[in-house]
């Protein structure tokens, strides 16, 4: 773990002591993610290729005896924000709103699936350094860390590399599905499985190649620094509220297209059959389907290049992914387009928006000796366009969720 991540874990434990007057029973943490490629494919049963950020959310936790969930978050300013403790028994979709819905939703799913695990209740103190609202999955990091913490308090340690079939511990894929259910049904966001799986299953120096249809997954070596490259994350700090409804509209459009094409999901459309599929669709669905089918191809090309150690050659697929998200799927934003163009003009080998879009972050594959040039080019392009200053950092693939203390 990086010194910053170690500090996050320590702050959660120290915060717990200061706020609750005693030590936590344990501390669990989970990372945010960037998706290297494979965007808006997860809810179409397609391929994704995320890696975990070094940035993490940590949860210090201890059991209670009154069946309530007490949650406090400590913000960047060090100030605690406390949600009124709520009876886990009373949790139901819609019963908690705002930020507290995320940890509460996880407790709700566990109550539905493993009631004994959460029956005593718990106190949670949460802090972290995953940039919020940056499309880097801070909310999933929070939910995954809460899930491991609540299970851990009940003595259920979720094995790091998938569960064994001969014990009754949930494996990480099961936990990812629970977190998705919490987000879909309790929080009310119709998201796929990319982010939870990334947070729970990624490994250092690797990207996670996940086939969402079969849930087969493989760690693909991706140590960019070894090839004198870096993944530069450009947090545009823009968030366009349109994104919340547009995500659901895109998803519904894909489902409508799959129905019209008589397939279970758009994953069933092979690139070789794309043209005839598009011919059979109304005009509004054509670009959506074209994006999903070509994006699945780009993920597979990228994985093949990484497997061959040809890291520099993945650039064009990243850039093509951005063009497809901008022009066909229409989920980009002016800030993301400016970030991508400025990075490419300054020598990035490829660049794209990452995550759901409508703001948030872009990534650029940058030769190490171009780091300063690309960073300065992006920053000055933002200033020329009168956007707020972006936040830039280099992200190395890091560890998935685990128990820290
Ligand atoms: C968001 C969602 F949460 C993911 O499930 C995924 O669909 C992504 O947008 C787009 O690839 O992060």
From TrEMBL:
The keyword 4Fe-4S does not apply. InterPro entries: Galactokinase (IPR000705), Galactokinase_CS (IPR019741), GalKase_N (IPR019539), GHMP_kinase_C_dom (IPR013750), GHMP_kinase_C_sf (IPR036554), GHMP_kinase_N_dom (IPR006204), Mevalonate/galactokinase (IPR006206), Ribosomal_Su5_D2-typ_SF (IPR020568). Pfam families: GalKase_gal_bdg, GHMP_kinases_C, GHMP_kinases_N. Its EC number is 2.7.1.6. One of its GO terms (cellular component) is cytosol. Residues 304-382 form the GHMP kinase C-terminal domain. This is Galactokinase. It comes from Labedaea rhizosphaerae.
């Amino acid at each position: 773990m990086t010194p910053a991540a170690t500090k996050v874990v320590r702050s959660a434990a120290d915060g717990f002591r200061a706020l609750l007057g005693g030590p936590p029973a344990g501390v669990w943490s989970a990372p945010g993610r960037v998706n290297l490629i494979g965007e808006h494919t997860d809810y179409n049963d397609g391929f994704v290729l995320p890696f975990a950020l070094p940035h993490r959310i940590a949860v210090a936790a201890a059991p209670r005896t009154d069946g309530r969930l007490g949650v406090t978050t400590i913000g960047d300013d060090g100030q605690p924000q406390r949600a009124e403790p709520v009876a886990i028994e009373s949790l139901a979709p819609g019963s908690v709103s705002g930020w507290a819905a995320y940890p509460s939703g996880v407790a709700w799913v566990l109550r539905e699936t493993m009631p004994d695990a959460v029956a005593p209740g718990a106190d949670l103190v949460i802090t972290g350094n995953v940039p919020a609202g940056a499309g880097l999955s801070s909310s999933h990091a929070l939910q995954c860390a809460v899930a491991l913490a609540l299970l851990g308090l009940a003595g259920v340690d979720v094995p790091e590399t998938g569960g064994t079939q001969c014990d009754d511990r949930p494996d990480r894929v099961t936990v990812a599905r629970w977190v998705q259910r919490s987000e879909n049904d309790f929080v009310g966001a119709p998201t796929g499985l990319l982010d939870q799986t990334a947070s729970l299953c990624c490994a250092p120096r690797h990207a996670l190649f996940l086939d969402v249809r079969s849930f087969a997954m493989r760690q693909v070596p991706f140590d960019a620094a070894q090839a004198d490259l870096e993944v530069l994350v450009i947090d545009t700090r823009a968030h366009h509220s349109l994104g919340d409804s547009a995500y659901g509209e895109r998803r519904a459009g894909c489902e409508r297209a799959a129905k019209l094409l008589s397939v279970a999901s758009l994953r069933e459309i092979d690139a070789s059959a794309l043209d005839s599929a598009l011919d059979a669709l109304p005009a509004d669905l054509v670009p959506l389907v074209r994006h999903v089918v070509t994006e699945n191809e780009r993920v597979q090309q990228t994985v093949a290049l990484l497997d061959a150690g040809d890291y520099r050659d993945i650039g064009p697929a990243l850039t093509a992914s951005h063009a497809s998200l901008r022009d066909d799927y229409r989920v980009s934003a002016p800030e993301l387009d400016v970030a991508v163009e400025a990075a490419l003009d300054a020598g990035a080998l490829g660049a794209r928006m990452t995550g759901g879009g409508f703001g948030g972050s872009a990534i650029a594959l940058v030769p190490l000796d171009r780091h300063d040039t690309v960073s300065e080019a992006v920053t000055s392009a933002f200033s020329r366009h009168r956007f707020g200053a972006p936040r830039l950092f280099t992200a190395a693939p890091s560890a998935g969720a685990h128990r820290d203390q």
